[in-house]
DNA sequence: CTGTCAAATGATAATGATTATCATGATAAT
DNA sequence: ATTATCATGATAATCATTATCATTTGACAG
C-alpha cells in the first residue's frame, strides 16, 4: 500500500504534479476498493469519511488526473455514470470485465487472452493497437 | 432497404408496437448511415430533414425501442454521448470497433474473432456469454 | 361511417452527471 | 517576507437524457 502510494507520488512529481492530502486520500480510497468499480460520487462519499472537508470538484479533478497518468481507467458500463478502475501496475493493457445481466455484478479478468486476436487485427486491419476495452455480458457463475 | 424495413416492421408488430411514420423515418436514417455512429442528436437532425415536425423526445424513444428489439446497439466511446449502431441482421454478437487516437475515426470489424476467447471464458470463469463489447484504441491505417 | 380508447407524439420542464468559474488558500523558490 | 504558481472548495453553468402531460393518431367495435 505505502509503496504503491510512493510510486504514484513519484509518477506525479515526474510530471510536476504534487501529491496533496486530498489527492492522497483519494488514491487511498481507490486502493482500498481495488476490486470495485466506483463512480466519482462513490469515491467522493468514501473520501469524505477520512477527509470531510474535501470538495466534489477536487475528486473529479483528481480522478481526471489519475486517468491521464494511467493510474486508473475511466470506464462506462452503460448506466449513466463513469466508473474509475485502478489499473494493474505495469500492465500493458486494461483488464476485462464480466457483467452479469441477472444480478448486475461486475467481475474482472486480469489475464490478457487477446494476444492472438490482436496480432490478427494488427496485420489484417493494419491498425496499431495501444489499448483495448473488452466486456462480456451474460450470466455469472453465481446466478447459474 | 425496403425489405429490411419490412422485417423491422414485423419485428415491431410481433411485440405489438406499430411502425409509425416517425419511427419509419428514424429507421431510414439509421439504414442510410449504417457505417456511422450517430448520437441521438445526430439522428434527430438527420430525421428532421425528411420529417421536420418530429420531436427530439420521439427520437430518443424510438432509439430506446430499437435497442430493446436489438435492431441497434447503444454504445459509448467515452465522449459524453451514447451512439446508436445498427446491428448486422442475424448476427449473434455485436461487432468490434477500432478507434483511432490520432484522428478519432471509428472503423468496424464485422468478423467475430472471439470464438476461442469466449470458449475459454465460459469454461474457466463459468460465465455464460450472451454478448460482448470489444474496442481497440490505437493508430488507424490512415494515420500510420 | 362515427365514437371509443390505448398507444404515440411533441413541447417543455426536470433531473443528474460533469465541467467551468472564481475567490481563497497552500506551497516552494527567490 | 514576497511573489508566483498550483490546488482547492463552493457554486453556477452546461448538456444529455428522462419525465410529464396535454394533444393527436389510428385501430377497432358498434
Ligand atoms: Mn475492473
Ligand atoms: Mn459500429
Ligand atoms: Zn449474476
Ligand atoms: Zn487515424
TrEMBL record, chains A, B:
Keywords: DNA-binding, Iron, Metal-binding, Repressor, Transcription, Transcription regulation, Zinc. It holds the Pfam family FUR. One of its GO terms (molecular function) is DNA-binding transcription factor activity. Zn(2+) binds at residues 100, 103, 140, 143. Fe cation binds at residue 132. The keyword Metal-binding applies. Binds 1 zinc ion per subunit. Binds 1 Mn(2+) or Fe(2+) ion per subunit. CDD domains: Fur_like (cd07153). It comes from the Bacteria. One of its GO terms (biological process) is regulation of secondary metabolite biosynthetic process. Its cofactor is Zn(2+); Mn(2+); Fe(2+). Belongs to the Fur family. This is Fur family transcriptional regulator, ferric uptake regulator. The lineage of its organism: Bacteria, Bacillati, Bacillota, Bacilli, Bacillales.
Amino acid at each position: 500500500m505505502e509503496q504503491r502510494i510512493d510510486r504514484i507520488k513519484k509518477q506525479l512529481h515526474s510530471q510536476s504534479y504534487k501529491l496533496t492530502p486530498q489527492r492522497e486520500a483519494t488514491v487511498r480510497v481507490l486502493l482500498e476498493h481495488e476490486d470495485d468499480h466506483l463512480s466519482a460520487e462513490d469515491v467522493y462519499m468514501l473520501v469524505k469519511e477520512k477527509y470531510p472537508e474535501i470538495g466534489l470538484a477536487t475528486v473529479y479533478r483528481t480522478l481526471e488526473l489519475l486517468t491521464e497518468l494511467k493510474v486508473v481507467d475511466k470506464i462506462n458500463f452503460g448506466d449513466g455514470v463513469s466508473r474509475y478502475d485502478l489499473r494493474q501496475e505495469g500492465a500493458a493493457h486494461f483488464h476485462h470485465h464480466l457483467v452479469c445481466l441477472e444480478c448486475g455484478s461486475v467481475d474482472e479478468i486480469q489475464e490478457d487472452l487477446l494476444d492472438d486476436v490482436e496480432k490478427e487485427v494488427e496485420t489484417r486491419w493494419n491498425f496499431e493497437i495501444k489499448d483495448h476495452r473488452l466486456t462480456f455480458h451474460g450470466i455469472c457463475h453465481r446466478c447459474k
